[in-house]
Design brief:
Layout: H1 2-25, H2 34-56, E1 58-63, H3 65-71, E2 76-80, H4 86-90, E3 98-103, H5 112-118, E4 122-124, H6 130-145, E5 149-151, H7 169-178, E6 182-187, E7 203-209, H8 219-249
Parallel strand pairs: 1-7, 2-5, 2-6, 3-4, 3-5
Antiparallel strand pairs: 6-7
Helix pairs in contact: 1-2, 6-7, 7-8
Length: 259
């Protein structure tokens, strides 16, 4: 445990130094087309993943890449499980025109927030009413129609490993409004980068791209299908990840409550 603590401390320091490096390196992209800032963000994500492997012994395995290759260009809805901050930057590497819906306040951060504005991410006020949600859906539909890939977490926020699922109305409404294929994604990142702790655990973090869901389903049909696909696959990945952690260090990352 002492080794994990020290490695985690080192990684967190290096993670923010790496973020600062890419933020400063990306300043010229303010006057470039959007691909410039996307390139910066993708390389920040890739180097952060590499550093986690080197420092924390956290390897990453991607499954279903043959499915991804058929859909990672052009209009697409991507729905990953959301257990950690890890997937917010790790997903960037796979798409030419990634698009996120995020907290409006993040756009106000110096430099980093300006990059979000430059890359035309959709900012929303958390806990907003129906009018704001309709505006969010309209913006999403317009951007996806331009050929972008909307990465939207169907539960809206991070969910601790082992906590009950809570799929939101918003993602099903966006699916119906956009009328494009949805690519569900299962993962077990919460075992290695848990919520609300700086500890980073060793093992094999797995991301699995699942069979696509075609457009044309109703909201209820879509919610049932996407939640079943993600939950079934995620449960298997989490179990395998826990077993591996026990073999590696004698214990698995603790379950944290959904609070």
């Amino acid at each position: 445990m002492v080794s994990i603590f020290i490695r985690s401390l080192i990684y967190n320091i290096v993670f923010y130094l790496n973020l600062t490096f890419w933020v400063l390196l990306g300043i010229p992209t303010y006057i470039m087309p959007r691909w410039g800032i996307i390139w910066i963000a993708q390389n920040w994500g890739l180097t952060s993943i590499w550093l986690m492997r080197i420092i924390c012994n956290t390897r990453v395995e991607y499954r279903g890449l043959e499915i991804l290759k058929k859909y990672n260009q052009g209009p697409l809805l991507v729905s990953p499980q959301h257990q950690s901050a890890w997937e917010t930057f790790a997903m960037l590497q796979f798409f030419d025109e990634p698009l996120y819906i995020l907290k409006r306040e993040l756009r106000w951060l110096p430099l980093f927030g300006w990059y979000l504005v430059k890359s035309n991410m959709i900012g929303v006020k958390r806990g907003a009413g129906g009018r704001t949600l309709r505006e969010m859906a309209r913006r999403a539909r317009e951007e996806v129609a331009k050929g972008r890939q909307l990465i939207i977490f169907p539960e809206g926020t991070r969910r601790a490993v082992g906590a009950p699922p809570d799929y939101k109305f918003g993602v099903s409404q966006i699916y119906v409004d956009c009328g494009v294929t949805c690519l569900p994604v299962a993962l077990n990142s919460g075992l290695f980068w848990p919520r609300r702790t700086f500890l980073r655990y060793p093992g094999t973090l797995v991301v699995e791209f699942l069979d696509p869901i075609p457009p044309g389903l109703s909201r209820d049909e879509f919610t049932a299908r996407v939640s079943t696909a993600i939950e079934d696959a995620t449960n298997k990945l989490v179990k395998a990840g826990r077993d591996e952690q026990v073999r590696l260090v004698g214990f698995s990352a603790p379950i944290r409550s959904q609070d």
